[in-house]
Amino acid sequence: MPLGPPSSALNIQGPSTSDALQNAPRTPTHITIHPVALFSILDHYLRRTDSQPRVIGTLLGTRHENEVEVRSSFAVLHSETDEQVAVDMDYHRTMYELHHKVHPKEVIVGWYSTGSNLNTYSALIQNFYSQETVNHPAIHVSVNTGVEEGQEAGVKAYVSSPVGTAPKPENCVFIPVPVELRFHDAERSGLDLLLSTGNSSTSTSSQPVADLEIIERSIMAVSDMLDRVLAYVRDVLLGQRKGDPAIGRYLMDTLGASTDDLEKGGFNAALQDTLMISYLANLVRAQAEVSSRLALTAAA
Amino acid sequence: MAATSMAAALAASLPAPAAVTVAPTPTYEAIPASMAKAVDIEAEIPLTCVQLDGMVVTKIIKHAREAPSTTAHGLLLGLDLDGILEVSNSFPLPHHANDDDDKSAKSSARHQASMLRSLKEVQADDSVVGFYQATTLGAFFSQSLIDTQAIHQDKLRHGGIVIVHDIAQTARGNASFRAYRLTAAFLDAYKKANFSTSSLINHRLTFSSILEEVPLKIRTNPLLSAFLGTLAEPSRAPLSSATLGKASSELGPSFSVVDLGTGGITRNLEQIVEAVDNYRTEEGNLSYLSRQIARERAKAENYLAKRKEENQTRVAQGLAPLPEEDVSRLFKIPAEPSRLESLLLLGKIDALGKSLGGTASTGLVKIHVFRKGPRPRPLRRRLRQRTRHPPTSSGPPPKFNNLMTEVKNKIKEVPVHLSSILLDYTDVPGITLGLSLDKATAVIKKSKTKHPNCLDTSDLPETGEKASHG
């Protein structure tokens, strides 16, 4: 699934042409981004000065075969004028070293900028980062924050290739590469939390949230989905919409999920276990409480 | 008034922090007309709330999950405004395994300083307001946490806060962040480095009154909200069989919370057992030490009594009494042991118990929801009939309609069942056990009449409740 508006670019993964080139790094054909990197970029954009039309920074992550996984990012100082572009290289190095201490596995994979226009300066910066990502092609991620009128928020990723008979650093072609959001399952609940926070009218939500509330929300979501499925099924039955056999199969598979193991007495066993654990937990807590208070009375 | 005008001048010179965050989007957040009320140079306005930025939430979660040990920690940056501590950024601190303490402290300080300098250059907040600590299953009481927070509470404006993030709970589907700081009573005892029994009694310390919780809010800035909205929006690509298998948006719904699996419980139990063992060892040490103290004291008292008796006989015989010697020089009474460690262990046991109880109670609810939800058997039989004749291109099978109505009706009952389960749940034996606590307190109270020196514990905060020390 694309993170931004669909693009019509074709991504062709050329077959490894010769065995001699096997050690040469392959051009990434797939890029994934961790939410942290994305949110840091947005935060950096918020904190830019008025004179900066866009901000840039370094992307850190890991590489597998021909996939690049962007796992974090940090802001880098730069200035663009009509005549020149400057990137604070010292700053970039310092930040990278600091970051490297905490996350030793993450290396420089490329750079990001906000806004979606690619210009000569982009090519120059790309050239700079290509030197930083020794031996591997640098990737460029452009995040459109969607703040400007008429532009859609989204993320695009590119790799570059030199152009012209005599390649110059300020000339290059940016080739779009599919990009998608990736995070660990365990981090999902954090995103859910932010999502519900973002949807609330005050953009704030208080912690902690009760477990039951979240369960209730999930069940409501299931119920809503069933509503949608039901509406669809009804429409098909009434002949208002053409049925899709594939959807029918998927629904069948989902609704026919087996519940055998829990039905055959497993249910009561599970219930008893849970009750036992609940009892135990309360017992432990009561003991701890009594013990701490007895410690207070011992001096008598 | 000179004072107010000065404050107003200050307010004018200060950039309004609220204005900075909303700058790129034309939302109209209420910016106070004058910041005079909010300007707080001496940190006089007490903190009422901690506000955690969305980016920090993801940063902490990522670091906590990836860190090699379970004790990932880092610094929180931000500023306070009118009683609300806004945490706007954070960075992880390197993890030092078995390093030289002195060396690691120094390199960590260097890391901090250069990180702060770097962040300042890109207009990020660079004032440290506290630190975060990852934990599993709620057991975050540790000596190092207390030490760090005690230093912060001395050095930082407003004393700083510690945000505790529970990895285990987040993995279960409920991202949990809590903000704490040390209570005044504990800090007092800590500064005197005195955790003897009498000190505990004077400060009324139990594990629940070591830390006080500060209300915590999560905030997403408008840009982040908008972006998240775009991510969660279903894609407009037409529904086709090719895309059915995947989620239709980047952030499709997730149902890990309703998973019936009880994976974490074994580990939770193991950890409780371990903590209880540690506690028993610690208690053993303590009681050994206090026996030793009692023995020495008895010896000293015997000696004194003997000397007195002797003196009396000498006086009766008309002899000069022997001088009263300094007993403390003759008998070395060891200092009373610190009970801090056992206090922390108890806190750990309690937290583990609490998280176990939480898992059990949600598990119970899920089991009941499952049972009282769609009744599986008739549904399955019908489905089996249908699957023998798989749907052809004519569309979904005709009986689907009834089936779905049934499922839907059943599922609609779920919220009703939820509430009835909650009522049931109060009758679970474990809950009534909580009542026995009150009995225990009553017993302790009664014992007060016998031992007048003993502390009345009735006004101590209950466990689980927020300590309400001023």
Q: Strand count, sense and closure of the main sheet of chain A?
A: 8 strands, mixed
Alpha carbon gap, first and last residue of chain A: 70 Å
Number of strands of chain A: 11
- At the first level of CATH, the class of one domain in chain B is Alpha Beta
Q: Characterize the biggest β-sheet of chain B.
A: 8 strands, mixed
Main location (chain A): cytoplasm
Family (chain A): Belongs to the eIF-3 subunit F family.
Subcellular location (chain A): Cytoplasm
GO biological process, one term (chain A): formation of cytoplasmic translation initiation complex
What does this structure look like?
The complex is a heterodimer of chains A (300) and B (470). Chain A is built from 8 helices and 11 strands. Chain A has an 8-stranded mixed β-sheet with strand order 9-8-7-6-2-3-1-10. A two-stranded antiparallel sheet of chain A has the order 4-5. Chain A is extended and about 75 Å long. The termini of chain A are far apart. Chain A has helices spanning 35-46, 89-102, 120-132, 188-199, 211-237, 245-255, 260-263, 266-297; strands at residues 30-33, 56-64, 67-76, 78-80, 85-87, 107-114, 139-144, 154-162, 172-177, 179-181, 204-207. The longest helix of chain A has 32 residues, at 266-297. Chain A has a domain at 25-185: Cytidine Deaminase, domain 2 (3-Layer(aba) Sandwich). Chain A is of the alpha/beta class. In chain A, 42% of the residues lie in helices and 22% in strands. By secondary structure, chain B is an alpha/beta fold. Among the domains of chain B are: 40-225, Cytidine Deaminase, domain 2 (3-Layer(aba) Sandwich); 256-372. Chain B contains 16 helices and 8 strands. Chain B has helices spanning 2-13, 17-22, 54-66, 101-121, 143-155, 167-171, 184-191, 197-203, 222-232, 264-316, 327-330, 340-372, 376-388, 400-412, 414-425, 429-450, and strands at residues 49-53, 73-81, 84-92, 128-135, 161-166, 177-182, 211-214, 216-219. Chain B has an 8-stranded mixed β-sheet. In chain B, α5 (143-155) links the parallel β4 (128-135) and β5. β11 of chain A pairs antiparallel with β8 of chain B, so a sheet runs across the interface.
